[in-house]
């Protein structure tokens, strides 16, 4: 039904005036007044009526929730290998902790992440061997950051599998993850978060140590059997490097999508004392698939100058921690290996961003110099 307009009501009022005159002659005055007042009231009510707000369209439905990552490794890696190779903005750094113990330097890392005002530029992922107990539990920035994990042991392929699992979850979790850093529980930062972020995101290459003709290389290559690596991995292509690296999103996808070289390293070793797949698989894969896509050096400092103790490098004690140690570690220069030539490159001088191996007893000494030394660049 159409609503009356002011004009139509006014016309109706004019048409009623002759009747009002008639009523003046034939009816009492009260009837005339009642008729006119009634018409006036209708016009007044209409004019005072507030216009109704236009109907608003319903809000758009929320975006569909992403399905949880697949539980089995094969499906997980296959799905992760199909993500967009280009990170969205703002670019983020994925900090991936591979551990079998509680994180002894969690307070230092908590301060590291919280002393920046760029809280949206990083993500944390933890692979925690479920056969171990974690007391105290992961809290603060580490709360709810543990991915579905499996047992991980040295001298087996399981440590490498854990790193691939971390990469897959980080790729699927956030399309902004641009650099993927693998860390151990004994690692500490050597610079502020802002310095680290700028160093990593300004590079379009991975930082991974790739060395050739290292002592014992042939024994490592043949640890699964004299010809077990053939034909996919010839000895001439076999490389050695630190297990701690920073990979670009491109190389992270390369790792999780590899089903050619990985099966060769995913075999049990016959000689355990030369079995370190986590130090061989990643350098070999990057060397074979994209040798020019990386800076062949690690940005995690480690001291082998005193030799190896059970396959481990030097461990720093609390009595050694101080400003001088941090400055000394910062001043060191990475070892570069390009095109199979070991040694130091004459052009690059990338900064060490992290260092290991520190004893858990160092935490108080490190916290004491964190703000004035470690986080001052």
Automatic annotation (TrEMBL):
Molecular-function GO terms, alphabetical: glycosyltransferase activity
Cleavable signal peptide: 1-24
Pfam families to which the protein is assigned, alphabetical: Branch (PF02485)
Record's compositionally biased regions (Pro residues): 56-70
Compartment(s) of residence: Membrane
Record GO cellular component, one term: membrane
Chain intervals for the UniProt region annotation (Disordered): 51-73
UniProt membrane topology term: Single-pass type II membrane protein
Principal place of residence: membrane
Keywords per UniProt: Glycoprotein, Glycosyltransferase, Membrane, Signal, Transferase
Tree of life domain: Eukaryota
Name of the featured protein: Core-2/I-branching beta-1,6-N-acetylglucosaminyltransferase family protein
């Amino acid at each position: 039904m159409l609503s009356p307009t002011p004009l139509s009501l006014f016309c109706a009022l004019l048409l009623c005036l002759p009747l009002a005159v008639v009523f003046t002659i034939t009816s009492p005055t009260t009837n005339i007044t009642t008729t006119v007042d009634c018409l006036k009231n209708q016009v007044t009510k209409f004019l005072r009526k507030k216009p109704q707000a236009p109907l608003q369209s319903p809000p758009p439905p929320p975006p569909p929730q992403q399905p949880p990552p697949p539980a089995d490794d094969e499906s997980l890696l296959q799905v992760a290998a199909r993500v967009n190779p280009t990170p969205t903005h703002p670019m983020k750094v994925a900090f991936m902790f591979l551990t079998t113990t509680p994180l002894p330097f969690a307070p230092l890392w908590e301060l590291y992440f919280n002393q920046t005002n760029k809280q949206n530029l990083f993500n944390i992922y933890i692979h925690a061997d479920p056969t171990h107990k974690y007391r105290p539990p992961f809290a603060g920035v580490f709360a709810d950051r543990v991915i579905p994990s499996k047992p991980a042991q040295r001298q087996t392929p399981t440590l490498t599998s854990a790193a691939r699992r971390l990469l897959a979850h980080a790729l699927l979790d956030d399309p902004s993850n641009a650099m993927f850093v693998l860390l151990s529980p004994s690692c500490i930062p050597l610079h502020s978060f802002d310095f680290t972020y700028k160093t990593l995101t300004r590079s379009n290459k991975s930082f991974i140590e790739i060395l050739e003709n290292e002592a014992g290389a042939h024994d490592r290559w043949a640890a699964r059997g004299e010809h077990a690596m053939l034909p996919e991995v010839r000895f001439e292509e076999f490389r050695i490097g630190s297990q701690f690296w920073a990979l670009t999103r491109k190389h992270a996808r390369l790792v999780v999508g590899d089903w050619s070289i990985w099966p060769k390293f995913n075999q049990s070793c016959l000689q355990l004392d030369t079995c370190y797949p986590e130090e061989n698989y990643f350098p070999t894969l990057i060397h074979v698939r994209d040798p020019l896509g990386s800076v062949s050096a690690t940005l995690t400092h480690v001291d082998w100058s005193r030799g190896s103790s059970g396959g481990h490098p030097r461990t720093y004690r609390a009595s050694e921690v101080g400003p001088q140690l941090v400055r000394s570690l910062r001043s060191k220069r990475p070892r570069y290996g390009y095109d199979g030539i070991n040694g130091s490159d004459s052009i690059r001088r990338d900064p060490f961003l992290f260092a290991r191996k520190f004893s858990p007893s160092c935490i108080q000494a490190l916290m004491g110099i964190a703000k004035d030394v470690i986080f001052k660049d």
